[in-house]
Amino acid sequence: MEAYRSSNYVCPSLRHNWTIGAPTGGHRGAILGAWNPYSQRQSLWRNLRADRQLKQRLAREISETPRSVWGGCASWWEHHYFAPGLDPRTACRIAGWMRQNAWLWLDGRRVCLVYCAGGRATRAA
To answer: What pLDDT is attached to residue 96?
Structure first.
């Protein structure tokens, strides 16, 4: 879990950089990724295919266009999407569908890590 806490999540189109526990800048929604399911490295081709599937799914769930986000630290960086206005229940379902260990929830005040491995969501920060 330390890797998540030391990561930065950069959204160039919003000119915003989020970290877990930090203020959201008033943003509400979820940051979800599809790369490297269950933290198992995949080829770029597989990650890009999963990324397209996630973007299509998010486009059906929210009224705004999902925003591109790069998240990580040191040598591990992954592409994500910020889905403004996405509710936490739907975000958790999508994260499970994409076989992700965790996702970020922006509640309008601070950035929270939601750990969801094993099918149960746990708010960690």
So the answer is: 93
Selection from 38, 66, 42, 71 nearest residue 52 by Cα: 66
Per-residue pLDDT tens digits for 42-61: 999 999 999 999 999 999 99
What are the two backbone dihedrals, phi and then psi, of residue 99, each rounded to the nearest 5 degrees? Answer: 60, 50
pTM exceeding the 0.85 threshold for the entire prediction? yes
Average pLDDT of the chain? 91
CA–CA separation, 77 vs 100, rounded Å? 15
pLDDT of residue 3: 74
Amino acid type, 7: S
Half-sphere exposure of 13 (CA within 13 A, CB side): 10
DSSP string, the chain: -HHHHT-EEEETTTTEEE-TTSB-TT-EEEEEE-SSGGG----HHHHHHHHHHHHHHHHHH-SSPPEEEEEEETTEEEEEEEEET--HHHHHHHHHHTT-SEEEEEESSBEEEEE-GGG--EE--
